[in-house]
Design goal:
The protein has about 180 residues and is α+β, with helices and mostly antiparallel strands. It has one domain: 3-Layer(aba) Sandwich (Aminopeptidase), CATH 3.40.630.30. It is about 35% helix and about 30% strand. It is built from 6 helices and 8 strands, in the order ββαααβββαβαββα. The chain has an 8-stranded mixed sheet with strand order 1-2-3-4-5-6-8-7, with helices on both faces. A hairpin with a 4-residue loop joins β7 and β8. The protein is globular. It starts with a strand and ends with a helix.
Length: about 180
């Protein structure tokens, strides 16, 4: 996967090894790892590199895609998803560095990545989830066109415990792409 996505404010591009140190520093913030679910506290740089290399293999096989979100030269988050072995659907996710919360970057990056999945992997349905104590994430997913599909329990590595999770479902729709196109130059 060599695609780079340009939005009105962000450049989204695949992970590079040079991203590992900054990426690790950002994901080791408890405000990130407690809400992402798959990141343990204190993840070392080498583990970040290993995980990203594994994802590169899945990306090449068309089973996932992940993008680092840059504002100028600053890494401000990630967005992407991987194919669920249970459903075959892409499980979408994102995170934005806390210093950039509330600026619309999650919605902007998310819309661009959803658009990429539809046009590059012909994905027409996706899933996502968020924790009830992170309602801002639910609002972002709703803005992107996701709708509640259920509730479950999920083991969150960052919290080191099982927690409630609100499950979301996304059918590709013109509304999402119209909103995305209004944000792109």
């Amino acid at each position: 996967m060599t695609d780079e996505i340009q939005t009105s404010r962000l450049v989204l591009r695949p992970y590079r090894d040079a991203d590992a140190v900054v990426l690790t520093r950002l994901i080791n913030d408890p405000r990130i790892y407690r809400n992402v679910g798959r990141i343990p506290p204190g993840q070392p740089v080498e583990e970040t590199r290993r995980i990203q290399r594994e994802r590169a293999v899945a990306n090449a096989a068309g089973k996932s895609a992940g993008f680092c979100a840059y504002l100028g030269d600053e890494l401000v988050g990630m967005a992407g998803g991987g194919e669920s072995p249970d459903t075959g659907l892409i499980d979408f996710g994102y995170w934005i560095a806390p210093d950039h919360w509330g600026k619309g970057f999650a919605t902007e990056a998310g819309a661009a990545v959803l658009h990429w999945f539809v046009h590059n992997q012909e994905r027409r349905e996706m899933t996502a989830g968020y924790f009830p104590d992170n309602p801002g994430s639910g609002r972002v997913l709703e803005k992107l066109g996701f709708r509640k599909s259920g509730e479950s329990r999920y083991f969150c590595l960052g919290r080191e415990m099982e927690v409630d999770c609100i499950e979301m479902y996304w059918p590709a729709s013109a509304d999402v792409f119209n909103a995305y196109l209004q944000d792109t130059p």
